[in-house]
């Protein structure tokens, strides 16, 4: 059993120590302090109060490679995703951004010809590849490019994930439904029509309903794949506001083609690029460094299009 830990930013794997799967906010093992100034020790139940939450590593991705059949889609991507921060994934079409996102929550399992190698570790467990997909998705919500409400009522769209995860008490369900709709600013717009078809909502409302559906199980991580690409500027502004609000309490990974959006909402930015026909991570850094002092020539070139 491990008694003392240092700050949880860099690495929560210590070889030779058997770690039990733990809940979010409990840490396994730590190799480095969070900053040069911080050498705080803490027990497994505690966070380091000297560190800023955004310095905690929530997901550690090491050498992930994704193939569809014989085609290599992304190769050797390693990066740390920080907790309660927005990480934007940008890059030209076809460089593997969506595939990368799907690799994080095992949606890649749904494609029989897809093979994923490498490791993806969440702060609450060793590796997603040892977790059941249903358990993983309890903690990791996802929002897609096009709104995809089920062809049911607004209420049933939100009840569905709750019932799937064993929540059947009508009072608890109605409280959660109202809260999820309120969290995405939709409650006042739809409270008199929750039993109408979700398909009767506008595109922007449908996307917010899908966001409410992704949030209703209170995930720790939210994956968003170009969530505003089908929306008008006003609906986009609402979603961007929600992303910033949500990132105070959850970790957000946002795939976007919109460089201005990445600059507006992200704390960290990663540029993917296809070289030798394979998607790779080119540059990753804080939003200020990425846009203010890009290091890689491809980043400089790409930012000229922004
Ligand atoms: N199910 C699949 N089967 C085979 N190849 C696929 C599959 N899904 C994606 N690909 C291929 O993987 C590559 C990367 O696609 P992906 O959608 O991940 O890129 P992207 O960067 O998100 O693109 P975009 O910005 O256009 O959405 C593409 O060449 C695509 O054809």
UniProtKB/TrEMBL annotation:
Protein's UniProt keywords contain Oxidoreductase: no
PROSITE patterns xref list: ABC_TRANSPORTER_1 (PS00211), ABC_TRANSPORTER_2 (PS50893)
GO molecular function, one term: ATP hydrolysis activity
Database matches in Gene3D superfamilies: P-loop containing nucleotide triphosphate hydrolases
Domain ABC transporter: 59-303
A Pfam family hit: ABC_tran
Presence of keyword Nucleotide-binding: yes
Annotated GO CC locations: membrane
One of the GO BP terms on file: phosphate ion transmembrane transport
Keyword terms: ATP-binding, Nucleotide-binding, Phosphate transport, Transport
UniProt-recorded name of the protein: Phosphate ABC transporter ATP-binding protein (PhoT family)
Organism: Pleionea mediterranea
